[in-house]
Design a protein that fits this description.
Strand order of the largest sheet: 1-9-8-5
Bound molecules: pyridoxal-5'-phosphate
Strand content: 5-15%
Radius of gyration: 21 Å
Number of strands: 13
């Protein structure tokens, strides 16, 4: 049987092995230790934020950021409808209500014009607007030059969900640094991984101190386990932080490789009618997942047809996130929509983008796509 080509599997090797071994041999097999502190420092420096706290997941980071901003039951938090469910779930954990907003068709990111309209509507209704959570979709930063002034005018803090975007930049600023707080994920499929983990970043020392305290069961600084409020067990371990540090050292290399992959896909699809790449003109994107959007009328085929063809050759693809307003769990939630996210869900496809792919696997993927396109694409293709 042919070896499967996965969408974005972990890419670890001898460097990661040596760091993890060091952590194990040091005796710091705990949610504390020198690798953990160094990982926080190094990620904060890389992103350009003053402070960071390493956590068990990106979801935990989103939850804590909202708690630290005093998001409460009855509040409203604006969330892009096109995202992974973790963004919306974090809002629900606090008891607040997520209100969904549609995306820009070209990037899949939060649509600033709609955000403007939504913020005005919500303010007119007198609801306490507690936060806006832009997501940097598939590793391309949202349009912060428009989003941030709107949020500043509405006096609402921004929690940047940069789970997919470490290594991306926009206008010279790094993903994770745009909001009052930014959140990264180190889940196994992300651009770098700790197998599972996340990080919360901010320039606000008090916010980070509050999140650090909540992430360790809200324990008072006394020896007898004193608690005055409910906390969480959300801390990352020193062993996993060691893995993260090794991965971080390779970040530039893996971003460069993902960008090269996107280039190759871009070249392959350039002459194919009805196909475009999401955020294809964003030179700062980390290209975590190269994503195509297909116009079935112009292309003569659907994204699902290509997915089925590649699946038959053991090549994994995934649809674009199913929008939150279409999820049964959020049935009845309020949303400001244009239909753009639903169209991307129906016509989008994420392609294998992992850096552990061998050259022969890359060629296999590209050849399989070409084979699919043959006969369907009179214009021909070139690589
Ligand atoms: C946009 C987005 N937000 C949040 C998360 C949650 O991160 P984690 O899986 O580390 O909890 C992910 C990824 O899993 C994500 O893609």
């Amino acid at each position: 049987m042919t070896d499967p080509v996965l969408l974005s599997p972990p890419d670890v090797g001898p460097l990661e092995e040596s760091y993890v071994l060091d952590a194990l041999r040091s005796g710091w097999v705990a949610p504390a230790g020198p690798h953990l502190e160094a990982f926080e420092r190094e990620v904060a420096q890389r992103v350009g934020c003053a402070h960071a706290v390493a956590l068990a997941s990106g979801t935990a980071g989103l939850h804590l950021a909202l708690l630290a901003l005093d998001v409460r039951p009855g509040d409203v938090v604006v969330v892009p409808t096109l995202t992974f469910v973790a963004t919306a779930n974090a809002v629900v954990y606090t008891g607040a209500e997520p209100v969904f907003v549609d995306c820009e068709p070209a990037t899949g990111n939060l649509d600033p014009a709609l955000l403007d309209e939504l913020l005005r509507n919500l303010r007119a209704r007198g609801r306490r607007l507690a936060a806006v959570m832009p997501v940097d979709m598939f590793g391309a930063c949202a349009d912060y030059s428009r989003v941030l002034p709107l949020c500043a005018e509405a006096e609402v803090p921004v929690v940047e969900d940069a789970a997919e975007a470490l290594g991306a930049t926009r206008h010279g600023r790094a993903a994770g640094s745009f909001g009052r707080a930014g959140v990264l994920s180190f889940n196994g499929n992300k651009i770098i991984t700790t197998s599972g983990g996340g990080m919360l970043l901010s320039d606000d020392a008090d916010l980070i101190a509050r999140c650090r305290y909540l992430s360790t069961q809200a324990r008072q600084p006394v020896s007898h386990y004193e608690h005055t409020e409910v906390g969480y067990n959300y801390r990352l371990s020193n062993v996993l932080a060691a893995l993260g540090r090794a991965q971080l050292r390779r970040l530039d290399e893996v971003v460069a490789r993902r960008r090269q992959l996107r280039e190759r896909y871009a070249k392959l699809f350039a002459a194919v009618p009805g196909v475009r790449l999401l955020a294809d003109d964003d030179v700062g994107a980390n290209c975590w997942l190269t994503t195509i959007a297909v116009d079935p009328a112009a292309a003569g085929w659907r994204a699902a047809d290509l997915a089925a063809h590649l699946g038959a050759y053991a090549i994994e693809t995934r649809p674009v996130w199913k929008p939150m307003h279409l999820q049964p769990v959020f049935a009845g939630a309020r949303a400001l929509l244009t239909g753009a996210a639903q169209r991307l869900f129906e016509n989008g496809l994420t392609l294998p983008s992992g850096t552990a792919m061998t050259e022969s696997q890359v060629v296999r993927v590209l050849n399989s796509i070409e084979q699919f396109l043959e006969g369907r694409c009179p214009g021909g293709m070139g690589r």
